[in-house]
């Protein structure tokens, strides 16, 4: 839908607000709640200090506009063109910027934390819900978010190429699949933030607090991490370089995960020869390794939910502390493999509406060879070991839950 010129009442209200900002006679501060300004052409409009909670500017053109210090709590800017717009020190808690154009937009010191929405239920009950700011799919190229508050924001699949986040707070932000190449996060607080599938080529993370951050599958070779705190973070330590074609497959797989299959491509390594490859700390959920030669390969601390290793050669492979919920090792050769502290548990299946289906997928080892495998300290749930080659398996300290086929075969 194309934008349209604002109706006369809106033009009048904007002129009165401009008079208010200039301290002219007849000036009235713009105050609206839940009003519809969608699909309007409002380029260069000045709404500094306006009070507009819950209003909608969805699909509007607001290029070069100003919202300095404005109250924009819960405002809908989805798919709006906000290029070169200024939101410095604005209250944007709970705002929606889904697929918005925010190129060179300024959010310096803006409040983009979750907004608490109160819904009144029957019988007078109140339902309070924290709604995170949604920047999913937004174009933040060269935007300035210096010292902004973005805790818990959803920035998945956004593009923030060359953007500035210096000194910003990004606690537990979702950056999965985001293009952050050349972005400057110097001194930002990014504890428990997720970067799965993100592009950080040339990014600056100097002095960042990255404690507990999820950097699985992220190539950090071109990233400035000087002085960063990576305590408890999951990342590819030492950056064991994989062949270029494998790195490309990992990058495409990361996008596939982040977009729920809409972008990128699922990683299929079937029948490839990858002995000794280091996939440690990679996110390979639902990847396919059918009949792949992975002898002596490393999957330490990797995310391998629903990954399929049917018929793979995994002799002496290392899965220490890996997440293997619902993984399939049917017919695989795991002789001498290490699975110390691994999580081999059942995973509940949800439908497209994120509703429980009541179905649980457990790991499978049908006809696998576990001779001499080391599962010390592993958590193993719902696995049927009948038919598994099972000599000299070490289960010391393992937590075995509802497993079958073990009678008389331990040790």
What does this structure look like?
Strand 4 (347-350) and strand 5 form a beta hairpin. With 411 residues, the protein is mostly loops. Helices cover 7% and strands 7% of the residues. The protein has helices spanning 8-21, 244-258, and strands at 115-120, 126-131, 343-344, 347-350, 356-361, 379-381, 399-401. It has a three-stranded parallel β-sheet with strand order 3-6-7, with no helix packed on it.
Question: What's the short story on this structure?
Answer:
By secondary structure, the protein is low in regular secondary structure. The chain is built from two helices and seven strands; from the N terminus they run αββαβββββ.
What gyration radius follows from the Cα positions, in whole Å?
A: 26 Å
Derived from helix and strand composition plus strand pairing, the structural class reads little secondary structure
Question: Count of helical segments?
Answer: 2
Order of helices and strands: HEEHEEEEE
Number of strands: 7
Mean pLDDT: 93
For the termini, the CA-CA separation is 68 Å
State the shape: elongated
Strand order of the largest sheet: 3-6-7
For the biggest sheet, the summary is: 3 strands, parallel
- Classify the beta-strand content into a percent band: 5-15%
Enumerate the spans where pLDDT stays under 50 for 5 or more consecutive residues. none
Q: Give the helix proportion (percent range).
A: under 10%
């Amino acid at each position: 839908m194309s934008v349209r010129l604002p109706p006369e009442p809106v033009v009048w209200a904007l002129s009165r607000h401009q008079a208010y900002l200039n301290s002219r006679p007849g000036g009235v501060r713009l105050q609206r709640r839940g009003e519809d300004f969608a699909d309007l052409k409002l380029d260069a409009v000045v709404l500094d200090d306006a009070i507009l909670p819950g209003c909608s500017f969805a699909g509007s053109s607001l290029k070069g506009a100003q919202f300095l210090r404005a109250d924009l709590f819960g405002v809908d800017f989805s798919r709006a063109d906000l290029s070169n717009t200024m939101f410095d020190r604005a209250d944007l808690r709970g705002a929606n910027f889904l697929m918005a154009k925010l190129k060179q937009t300024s959010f310096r010191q803006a409040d983009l934390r979750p907004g608490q929405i109160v819904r009144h239920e029957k019988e007078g009950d109140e339902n309070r819900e924290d709604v995170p700011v949604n920047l999913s799919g937004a174009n933040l190229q060269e935007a300035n978010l210096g010292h902004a508050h973005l805790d818990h924001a959803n920035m998945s699949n956004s593009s923030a190429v060359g953007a500035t986040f210096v000194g910003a707070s990004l606690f537990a932000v979702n950056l999965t699949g985001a293009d952050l190449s050349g972005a400057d996060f110097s001194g930002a607080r990014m504890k428990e933030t997720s970067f799965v599938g993100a592009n950080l080529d040339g990014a600056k993370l100097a002095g960042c607090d990255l404690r507990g951050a999820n950097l699985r599958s992220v190539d950090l070779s071109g990233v400035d991490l000087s002085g960063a705190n990576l305590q408890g973070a999951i990342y590819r330590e030492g950056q064991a370089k994989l062949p270029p074609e494998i790195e490309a497959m990992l990058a495409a797989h990361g996008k596939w995960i982040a977009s729920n299959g809409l972008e990128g491509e699922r990683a299929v390594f079937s029948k490839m020869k990858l002995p000794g490859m280091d996939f440690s700390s990679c996110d390979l959920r639902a990847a396919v390794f059918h009949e792949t030669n992975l002898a002596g390969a490393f999957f330490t601390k990797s995310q391998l939910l629903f990954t399929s290793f049917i018929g793979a050669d995994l002799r002496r492979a290392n899965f220490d502390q890996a997440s293997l919920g619902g993984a399939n090792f049917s017919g695989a050769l795991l002789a001498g493999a290490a699975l110390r502290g691994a999580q081999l548990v059942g995973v509940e299946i949800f439908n497209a509406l994120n509703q429980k289906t009541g179905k649980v997928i457990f790991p499978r080892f049908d006809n696998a060879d576990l001779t001499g495998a080391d599962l010390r300290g592993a958590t193993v749930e719902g696995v049927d070991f009948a038919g598994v080659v099972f000599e000299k398996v070490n289960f010391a300290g393992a937590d075995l839950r509802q497993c079958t086929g073990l009678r008389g075969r331990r040790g």
